[in-house]
Amino acid sequence: MERSRMSLPTGPDTLCFDKDEFMKEDFDVDHFVSDCRKRVQLEELRDDLELYYKLLKTAMVELINKDYADFVNLSTNLVGMDKVLNQLSVPLGQLREEVLSLRSSVSEGIRAVDERMSKQEDIRGKKMCVLRLIQVIRSVEKIEKILNSQSSKETSALEGHSPLLTGQILERIATEFNQLQFHAVQSKGMPLLDKVRPRIAGITAMLQQSLEGLLLEGLQTVDVDIVRHCLRTYATIDKTRDAEALVGQVLVKPYMDQVIIEQVVESHPNGLQIMYNKLLEFVPHHCRLLREVTGGAISSEKGNTVPGYDFLVNSVWPEIVRGLEENLPSLFNPGDPNAFHEVPVPPSF
């Protein structure tokens, strides 16, 4: 870069070479001489080089004479410069110490802020744990208060609340119970939570028992509102499978045990067909209310249905399969080809 900015003196036009060749980055003597020999003899090249050398010496002398005063002044100005530099070294050293001290103070300040932020974050986390525990205790006390109020009213008056009102109360309890469960999971591992767990377990058992009793009462009295409130409450606490299991155990199983009897089937020529007809009668006669409430029937009102249930698949069908396997094992015995061949496939419900 520096070589390209320098300007060489101009020589006569009779030179056998271009002066700018000397300024190229890839200048090579051998290549230069070889290139010039293509045009002139060596003696002429030598003469031209000597001529241009003299021009360069003259230009250099002129340059020195031109800037001589500056060279002299520069050497004069440098006298005593070492003392000046020594004088600057002391304040520069002090400035360096001050900068290092300031840097250390800033680093300590940043470290202190980080520690305070870490402590604040820890305090915030502990505060959230305390708030969750407070919410757990509030929910437990609120549910216990509702349950105790309900128990005292039922004790003072035999008639107590109507079943619908009881269903509404259970729905309120279930909503609060959901919040209780959420905060209890978030507070897992806290010592105070272990002290409250027996009360939570008591509330869970009481809620489960009340829901089971209310659901059975609603099915026995064919009360749509009770069954709807009850199933909605089961769904609120994410216990839909418990409701389906209860229906299967209490409502479906006794019926299947009365209908699927091996002696009855064998005592009649068409005993198997009669048994299947009775099984098919179960859903329209005993599950009509459940299917209307859960939207499984054509007459169900879409706005009042409780989604998330399938009593036909999860309650009725498992009990039919269980009853056939336990009470009529001979149906699946391939050792009797005639009887095995007569087993029809039950039509869809």
Automatic annotation (TrEMBL):
Residues 15-88 form the Conserved oligomeric Golgi complex subunit 2 N-terminal domain. It is a peripheral membrane protein. One of its GO terms (biological process) is Golgi organization. GO terms for cellular component: Golgi membrane; Golgi transport complex. It is found in: Golgi apparatus membrane. The keyword RNA-binding does not apply. Its main location: Golgi. Pfam families: COG2_N (PF06148). The keyword Metal-binding does not apply. Keywords: Golgi apparatus, Membrane, Protein transport, Transport. Belongs to the COG2 family. This is Conserved oligomeric Golgi complex subunit 2.
